[in-house]
């Protein structure tokens, strides 16, 4: 698929590197670009003369798609479509993002979120088509699609249905998180912009995965988290157990943030971020090899997103230190100190300094307490002892003729559960060591 990139900026020079990466991720071959520095034209986004230049380039190159790195309104899409031959598609960055999401969605939840985002994007266009049809405008609507007067209500009905199903999925996932926490697991979430290296870092932290393994796109909560130099590799959430003794830690990789997302797209994927908002600790991963101003901007946006609902501590992880030298790393640490006062610098790819990150995770998570329980010797006592073994770190068990003394370390919540289970056995004593 041959595509021409178009981008307008209010001032300065238009940077098309990200939109080119997005186009490549969606499978397009970019064969040219048109940029302009001026205020947005309400009818065409670009100025009329520049729009004509774009049309000439499309005709010369026989491109099949024009990709705008600007948000196009329904009527702008319609007006631009009139400039090109039939069969030339006009899309903006958000349509492109949805294409990528649709290609990568592997789980039911991700597929529903993509469908929801597509419908929210289509709704104002359906309304525009209704308006144009009433004015007897050109059939086909030049990029807006064919007109169907029932489509607008169909979209609203589908949005309602998908929202209901996503709520049910989220309830199931919330119950799963609660069971894990009740079982003594600490929950850590990886957050940050797309392509920051979160999936590679997850593989580095996980007990049962290696960075070298790549088994294809992962299903939700299953064995793998793909590590690729691609945008939006992770759409669902992948949760793996991390090696942080004596804790039981689960680390979840989530969909990456991306700049300049419209409200309707953020809303469609907000349930994916619940695994971040409800974690015990958030690791905010950034690509330290990027320009420091870009890192700063991404950190600001990430903090705005996280602080909206997140209550867990946030640790900034400066990833990809294998791509920068020590002086550059030190300069960026200093420049970002206001947003990341005590970051951990690592390389998920090589494993450099990952041990320090594991120690930091242990320090930031809720402290474990040591507990000693004196249990009566009953038929049910061994099941309680076994449960403590499964959910805590047992230091010692002493069996007497009439009682059992068990000393262990665990999260405060798990200790309270152990005491409750022990009290059901009859006479028991407990003490914090």
Automatic annotation (TrEMBL):
Similarity-based family: Belongs to the TRAFAC class OBG-HflX-like GTPase superfamily. HflX GTPase family.
Job description of the protein: GTPase that associates with the 50S ribosomal subunit and may have a role during protein synthesis or ribosome biogenesis.
NCBIfam families (UniProt xref): GTP_HflX (TIGR03156)
Domain named Hflx-type G: residues: 186-369
SUPFAM superfamilies per UniProt: P-loop containing nucleoside triphosphate hydrolases (SSF52540)
Keywords: Coiled coil, Cytoplasm, GTP-binding, Magnesium, Metal-binding, Nucleotide-binding
Residues annotated to bind Mg(2+): 199, 234
Subunit structure: Monomer. Associates with the 50S ribosomal subunit.
Protein name, UniProt field: GTPase HflX
Source organism of the structure: Natronorubrum sediminis
InterPro entries (UniProt xref): G_HFLX_dom, GTP-bd, GTP-bd_M, GTPase_HflX, GTPase_HflX_N, GTPase_HflX_N_sf, P-loop_NTPase
Taxonomic lineage from the root: Archaea, Methanobacteriati, Methanobacteriota, Stenosarchaea group, Halobacteria
